[in-house]
Design a protein that fits this description.
By secondary structure, the protein is α/β, with parallel strands linked by helices. It has two domains: 156 residues, ornithine cyclodeaminase, domain 1; 171 residues, Rossmann fold, CATH 3.40.50. The chain contains 13 helices and 17 strands. The strands form three sheets. An eight-stranded parallel sheet has the order 9-8-7-10-12-16-14-15. Strands 2-3-4-5-6-1-17 form a seven-stranded mixed sheet. A two-stranded parallel sheet has the order 11-13. A hairpin with a 5-residue loop joins β5 and β6. α2 packs across α3 and α4 crosses α5. The protein is elongated and about 80 Å long. Bound molecules: nicotinamide-adenine-dinucleotide. Nicotinamide-adenine-dinucleotide (NAD) binds next to α4 and β11.
């Protein structure tokens, strides 16, 4: 079938309502490099902060997960009453052994008023960026003033993004890296060389946390792991716990949770997925938006241990998609995808097939 035939009976000459901008992995990489990764992370954190400030307008629910023994596929929807967004994301810690990534994602932003998608985007890179931007945004409110050294335990796909977000938003210059796989630590150190960090590669998690103001845990293992124990966490430390984000998948010893002031994204989801699944369902937590808006206090003093129990929430992805949409016209870094059927008579969807089957007859009838 040639192009003429398949376009007959469609409103291709009209408004082009069939076309949805698509941001591929290639476009996303070009966009990040064109903007500059630290600028991108700062701008993205700004969009997330803006949306957290208008928390009340959002439709919120815990994400919907499909679990297997190996991992999870999740759908993450939300809406602000004008736009609707969702992300499809997976988490499969054993995937890397077969050459696949632990986390991949894509997402859609739509017009809530007419239901039409406005953007389809890769979100594997975007998830790493938005997770890091959210972590650093939280730490800007929760870590000690003057923090300059961060331990990163788990040096896989997310790790460099975390490092660069903390540099861009908090001025972190010293990194202490540890991973069970020394090859992952070498990869992370190599990728960050020349980015302005002083990097120490460590032999154990205990060694990595020495002297760190901030401890980021970003490991992948589908089990209740104990990456950090209570004795490893000194007074005043901020913990950015990223890798415990699914039922039965945690990284911190329970005793740390009892000692820390805990900050979360959206409590009903974090109770199911976060470190706090280890605690009673009424254990007090503060939502990050409350700290951002000034409705709740973040860090009270320099001795307090603070914990951002990150699991990743739909509003962060919505903000990320909004940010990407706002870059499209300026950069042109997308392609038009023929995603939606667009018959010349909107109610004559079947007729589109009929006319495509016999375009000559259709053309004669119109003449
Ligand atoms: N909170 C969020 O918003 C969010 C977003 C994205 C990813 N994640 C989670 O972050 C984690 C990391 O994701 P990724 O894409 O970097 O995964 P990855 O598989 O690329 O890297 C994980 C690394 O952790 C290391 N590791 C596993 N167990 C360890 C241990 N006990 N001690 C030290 N290192 C250990 C592995 O060797 C690997 O290098 C995953 O659990 C993922 O689900 C959370």
């Amino acid at each position: 079938m040639n192009t003429m035939q398949i376009t007959t009976g469609r409103r291709v000459a009209g408004a082009g309502l069939n076309i949805v901008p698509f941001v591929s992995v290639d476009h996303m990489m070009k966009l990040v490099l064109a903007i500059g990764i630290e600028r991108f992370l700062k701008d993205l954190a700004g969009y997330i902060e803006e949306d957290f400030r208008r928390w009340d307008v959002f439709d919120k629910k815990p994400r919907i997960g499909a679990h297997s023994a190996e991992g999870v596929i999740e759908l993450m929807p939300t809406s602000d009453g004008e736009l609707y967004g969702f992300k499809y994301v997976n988490g499969h810690p054993k995937n890397t052994r077969a050459g696949r990534q632990t986390v991949t994602a894509f997402g859609v932003l739509s017009n809530l008023g007419n239901g039409y998608p406005m953007l389809l985007s890769e979100m594997t890179i975007l998830t790493a960026l938005r997770t890091a931007a959210t972590s650093a945004l939280a730490a800007r409110h929760l870590a000690r003033e003057g923090a300059d050294c961060m331990a990163i335990i788990g040096n896989g796909a997310q790790s460099e993004f975390q490092a660069l977000a903390f540099k861009a938003l908090l001025g972190i210059r010293k990194l202490r890296l540890f991973d069970l796989d020394a090859g992952a630590t070498r990869k992370c150190a190599r990728n960050l060389a020349g980015e302005g960090f002083e990097i120490v590669s460590c032999q154990s998690a205990q060694e990595a946390v020495l002297g760190a103001d901030i401890i980021t845990t970003v490991t992948a293992d589908k089990q209740r792991a104990t990456i950090v124990t209570d004795n490893m966490v000194g007074a005043g430390v901020h913990i950015n716990a990223v890798g415990g984000d699914s039922p039965g998948k945690t990284e911190l010893h329970r005793d740390i949770l009892a000692r820390a002031d805990i900050f979360v994204e959206y409590t009903p989801q974090t109770r199911i997925e976060g470190e706090i699944q280890q605690l009673a369902s009424d254990h007090p937590v503060t939502e990050l938006w409350q700290v951002i808006t000034g409705a709740a206090v973040g860090r009270r003093d320099r001795q307090q241990v603070t914990l951002f129990d990150s699991v990743g929430f739909a509003i962060e992805d919505f903000s990320a998609l909004r940010y990407i949409r706002d870059q499209l016209a300026r950069t042109g870094l997308y392609q038009g995808l023929d995603l939606l059927a667009d018959p010349d008579d909107p109610r004559d969807l079947f007729g589109m097939l009929v006319r495509a089957r016999n375009p000559a007859q259709h053309a004669a009838a119109r003449a």
